[in-house]
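Throughout this chapter, every protein is written as a compact record of paired, labelled lines. An example of such a record is reproduced below:
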Amino acid sequence: MNHLKTLALILLLNFILQNAEAQHKPFLDNIYDYIENPQMIGLNQQEGHVPLLPFTSLEKAFVNAPEQSSGFLSLNGKWKFLYCVNPEGINREFYQPRFNEKGMTEITVPGNWQMQGFGEKIFRNVSQPFKADPPHIPRDYNPVGSYRKTFTVPSEFKDKQLFLHFEGVSSAYFLWVNGQEVGYNQGANEPAEFDVTKLVKPGKNTVSVMVFQYSDGTYNEDQDMWRLAGIFRSVYLMATPKVHIRDYYVTTDLDEKYDNATLQVQAEVENFSDQPINGYQVKVTLLDQNNLPVLTDLTSEKITLDKGEKTTIRLNAAVKSPLKWSDEKPNLYHIGFELIDPVGLTTEALADRIGFKEVEIRHQVLYVNGVAVKLNGVNSHMQHPDLGHTMDVETIRKDFYLMKQFNINCVRTCHYPPVKEYLKLADELGIYIVDETGDEAHATEYISNMPEWTKSYVERAQKMVLRDRNHPSIIFWSAGNESGSGFNICEVIAAGKRLDPSRPGWMYGGNDLDHPGSNPIKCEDIIGPRYGTPFELKVFYGESPEEIDPRPSFMDEYLAATGNSLGGMDEYWDVIYQYPRCIGGAIWDWVSPGLRERYISTPDASSNNISAALMGKTALVAGKTGQAVQLTGTDTWVELYRDPKLDISGKALTVSFWVKPREWNGNGTFLSKGFYQFGVEQTNQKELEFYVGNKKRTSVKTVLPDNWQDNWHLVTGIYNGSLLQIYIDGTKKGETPCTLTIENKPFAINIGRNPEIEAQENPNHYSNASFDQVAVFDKVIPVEELLNPTEATKKSAVCWLDFDEQKTNSEFFSMGVGGRTYGMIWPDRTVQPELWQVKKSAQPVSVKLTDEAKGEVEIWNRMYFTNTSELEAIWQLQCEGSVVKEGTVETSIPALSKANLMIPYLPFEKEKGKEYFLLLSFRQKQDKPWAKKGFEIAWDQMPLQITAAQPEESILGLKAPELLDTDQAIQVKGSNFLYSFSKTTGSLASVKFDGTELLKQEMDLNVWRAPLANDMDQWTVGASGLTHLPGWGLGQSNIWSALGLDHLTTKADRMNWTIEPGQIILTIESHSWAGELSTCLLYTSPSP
């Protein structure tokens, strides 16, 4: 143990020495000591604080309009910009005041540079886009954006303290003002602020920022999303008095009856002047929703501060029966802060909105204002189809309106703090927020147990809490997502609790049932699980007693909304409502992550005219003949449509293409139809391989020629049923015996990518080459014909791509390489069908029919703070889609209560054989910001008993059927029909009516269904040891195919029958197997 302590001390001293050395060298002489150093999180920054907007009067502060502030200058807008692919290519003079900007382009801030035409858009889930080796990052591909903006300082800023504020930059950056070094920051989604008072001059000034796409901080930001970079949140200059309220913290403590409250205020005042000050006071004013005063005389004692000193002022006041804040009743109060100088003048005024709310955890249950609440939540990224990770207020507002309309009351901000406007709107509209630290180290979770990474974990949490802790919408905090279960998670939680003791709840996004030894983490206040079944949620959490674990259960992720999904919602919510410990969960996830792109295609010169899409940032360049397609090596490829003509199987194949490889980058997939079916790839710097396969693959390899790089070469692979041959530039370079039958697999043909293994978890580059005359044949073509192809040769191919032209087609939403179709709404905020299930399963009012004869129903008000009298209740008696009767009923059921009610739909006469339903619908009585009066929030449709109909006249008086026992079948014969049941399988083999056969084939037992997106997810089936078929992907549906569930064999065991007056009852027992499956089918002939 002593040796370990000594080693840890040596490592810590080494980091300290590195940091000290880094601070004494110019930034650009010392780049990697910053961006590969997990101890270097920031340099020369101000301590985090609440967002501030200073005014000269309280009246202006309450209006809170930035344009009325004499201390705010937005730097959003057009900036000058330089882009390069790695730090080796940077312009080292760009930040100098006299730098010539003519060679720079313009870029919009805030914005991701990939969304404005620079660099590549990369989507990854677990893996990094490069081989992980923390804290090191790739040297060959680490794009750098150099930003410059010239601005004029307003005259009102004279003699003020000036702070330059960045709300979000990915992932790390250096900052200069007027050519002078200011500081450094990493942490993409957390704010950073720099004191630039001594560097800013009157008149024109220049701010320069160099942003690195990857840094050691990237290992803490390995979120399941698009990996975009740049200054993507707002930038502004703030001017404050020399004596300044730099932070405030407001909490509300409710009494035991949750009626009266104590308002507790902490205000931190700092003296930035070069003189001691005394006689200053802080005054707090509280206004209600109608701007009427609640508190006006809450003023501190006079304070004395030495130069550079700061102090925290604490004030308390009793507030009688304030309106409380909750998701259903988001009552907000206006709070104002004034800094009063010794002569009684207001030198600075700030304002904010607060809510009176108290969150508690008692006996495994989460309480808000004394009421046990359930959270029907979603995970939501800051994701826009056109702006990337830059979010505008109107899109946020639309998201929240949709959430309210669909009974969603909670958002987990996956997997980082949102833009500050997000929380303001959540306060205003009533959405509970699980505010999540920007820590996710999914590919390298082991760093959670490494002390050199503690600062990187904790710093992000501290900035989040200090910025967001005054928002009433935040119900509890999250210590990050999938970052490991090491001690750094507990360090995050401990740091957060020191900064915000008002909320008892911290969770961590990563608990699952597969690792009971490390999950849940002991320091969590709220535990998982994630992606457990309803049964597991019930048995392991709902029914687990308090003495085993006193913490509430919140599913931070469940029911991944991928494609056609969200089956089982009712089963989950039955458990959630049944067990107090189960407080709900957050579905993965809210919005589909697609980015709007144009579908760009290139024509197929073969007679098949198969569509080929140019994916990513491809370009047409000079080719071997005409033009060629150039791939960048980063998430660019060509994908052919899954046309059946490309599903080549058998013992004949020719693939051919001209390729111009650039420098080897570790990936050499040239053409592929999956890992097994066929393909050509450069396996290393020296070898080329051609392969074909079925459940295994056979390949032939050759050594590359010396002039391989940066020259055009014709590569040809031929399989003739006995030999596998590879050619380069028309010369045979290798062959191997092969007699296997190529087996078709479910992957598309790709150029520059293997679609089976190079998807969303690919930690490598993609092909770094240009391609021309790419051809695939389902027969053998002599290589001489490919050297000088004719039009007839091209037409005879299965596909032939010349790349001489491209066509820009309609728009689509790109999910990137292997991206999954997450989301309950599309990127443009169009609702997907499964969102209606979310609305229904957790709807705030539930109804069941208790006595049909009396018209009695039981109504369960599942709202927490709202009486049903605030809703309009409308009933309808329906018959097969038509309304028979309708009306309204008055209800007055308290929150979380049940009551019986008579619905006056009686009397009415049922028509025999028809279906009747009673519908009860609950709708808004008043307009809401998110919905108009009459908007439906809950409904239940209850079936009434059916009065049996008389038999159809067509079968009355028919002759009784007879049974025929033949060698092959049991037959049931009537006057004009004949049913035949196979004695081999027991299946219905034939149905004849008036002599016409009605069955195309024998009826078989079918337990197969089309795989859904979740079934086909490329997770870990192949590595799990479960039965699976090579070459069919790693989704769950592979197991179904491997077990043979798509082609069962059936055998009849017993066939029995009884003949009764007027009818025959035939019972058939059979079993079907892929595995072993028994069935019992009962057939009864119609009885007249």
